[in-house]
Specification:
There is one protein chain. The chain is mostly helical and 450 residues long. The chain is built from 17 helices and two strands. A two-stranded antiparallel sheet has the order 1-2.
């Protein structure tokens, strides 16, 4: 009998405790760089618009193209590179990230910026998927969740520190300086990965075909769809947060980095709240956060002219967004335990599809002349659709579990019935009354099960 396959890697030279911490730090540094380049662009739109002589909605397409790069790159790279040694793959992904952001900083035209942002997005989802699996392989089973969370902490810290700093740097020295900062972070990450992350063996890993089959499961597909649509509401607002704050709320452009930092604080708070809530119920947490996210976007549309209210609502949106994404990630891991790399990558692809769709629809309503309040209204609609998709997924799962429980009960009852009849048959020769008693008990057992 062949040994069961495992979906984790085998480390060639297992590092000690300090080496493990350094390896996870290197992986988190990459998450910090990726998070910075993804979200800092939102705060740079007015500066890029003025420099490249394009409208804000036109420049917003660069954000959508970055997200589409993630959507294309996550499944494509993860599948094609299934047999590539993981450390080598991480280095290649980070090198692509550095080149893409370098081209972004040097973009002489809007078209050049579009291409470079798409290239920058290609390694995003695959990096997080591979980094999560590598981090989990470095620690004992009981600490794998903590290891993966520490890698994702880089993305969270990026929203508190990296994004506001890049936005401030872009305002002071020009938007190209922000992308050069990301290039520097990427180069430092390359060095850290090369020095601290051990090489791995791919034996026992699930094949690309096995992981791809997991995506066809209804619960996996519906969860990804809920994230791809529902999270688009947040991006419809966040993409155009800088001009919205200056045009409608009346804030100075120098205040924007602080609002972005507030959003990052909200995401961090959401990450801390998500664990205990999800431990109680994955489904209720996912549905509740989706519903409350829609309410937060509606509040943003209603109170966008009130600075104090905007600060509170932005924090609220960050908290709910983090809880929503974390609950969907846990839901996916539960439904596709045998496909961790591709599922983790596709989760990021789904959220970046939401990024692209939210940025596109938000820009469309602004270009149509409906103003900077309109993206929040679009966001409410997307949040509602995502909630409905997720509710349908939860309903389907409950029906499936109900049918499985019923089937298991019938099988159990039948087994008890068979055992009783067998006992009756064996005892019947000695005592006919026992046979009648056994048959009655069997019938009662089956009847109770039904």
């Amino acid at each position: 009998m062949s040994a069961p396959r495992t979906s984790l890697l085998q480390v060639v030279d297992a590092p000690g405790r300090t080496g493990t911490r350094l390896a996870i730090l290197a992986l988190a540094m990459g998450g910090f760089g990726v998070g910075t380049t993804e979200f800092a662009s939102m705060g740079l739109l007015p500066f890029i618009s003025g420099d490249l002589d394009a409208s804000v909605p036109e420049v917003g397409h660069s954000i959508a193209l970055y997200a589409l790069g993630v959507v294309v790159g996550a499944p494509l790279i993860t599948t094609l590179a299934a047999r590539v040694e993981r450390k080598t793959l991480l280095l290649a992904l980070m090198l692509t990230f550095v080149v893409g952001n370098g081209f972004s900083a040097a973009a002489p035209s809007l078209e050049w910026l579009f291409v470079s942002r798409f290239l920058s997005g290609l390694p995003h989802g695959a990096y997080f998927g591979v980094a999560a699996v590598v981090a989990a392989s470095l620690v004992p089973r009981e600490r794998r969740g903590t290891a993966v969370a520490r890698v994702m902490l880089g993305l969270t810290i990026a929203n508190i520190v990296g994004v506001p700093f890049a936005a401030a740097l872009g305002g002071a020295l020009g938007w190209r300086a922000a992308y050069l900062l990301v290039v520097l972070i990427g180069l430092l990450t390359l060095g850290a990965l090369a020095l601290w992350v051990p090489r791995t063996r791919n034996e026992g890993m699930a094949s690309a075909a096995q992981e791809a089959r997991a995506l066809a499961r209804p619960q996996v597909a519906l969860t990804l769809l809920a994230g791809a649509v529902g999270f688009g509401g947040m991006f419809a607002v966040y993409t155009y947060i800088s001009p919205t704050l200056t045009e409608l709320t009346g804030l100075d452009i120098g205040t924007v980095p602080w609002v972005l930092a507030l959003f990052g604080v909200g995401m961090t708070v959401g990450s801390l709240l998500a664990g205990p809530l999800i431990d109680r119920s994955v489904e209720r947490t996912a549905l509740g956060s989706a519903a409350v996210s829609g309410l937060a976007l509606a509040a943003f549309a209603m109170f966008v002219h009130v600075p104090a209210a905007v600060f509170v609502v932005v924090l609220w949106i960050g908290i709910m967004g983090s809880i929503f994404t974390t609950s969907l990630q846990v839901r996916l891991l539960r439904e596709a335990k045998d496909a961790p790399s591709l599922t983790a990558a596709m989760n990021h692809a789904a959220f970046n599809f939401a990024n692209a769709m939210g940025a596109f629809l938000g820009g469309a309503v602004i270009s149509a002349g409906w103003g900077y309040r309109a993206p929040a209204v679009v966001g409410v609609g997307l949040a509602v659709v995502g909630l409905l998709v997720l509710a349908w997924a939860v309903h389907r799962r409950q029906l499936t579990l109900g049918r499985t429980a019923t089937a298991d009960g019938v099988e159990s009852g039948a087994a008890e019935s068979g055992a009783a009849e067998s006992g009756a048959a064996e005892s019947g020769a000695a005592d006919p009354r026992a046979a009648g008693s056994g048959a009655t008990a069997a019938g009662a057992s089956v009847g109770a099960t039904r």
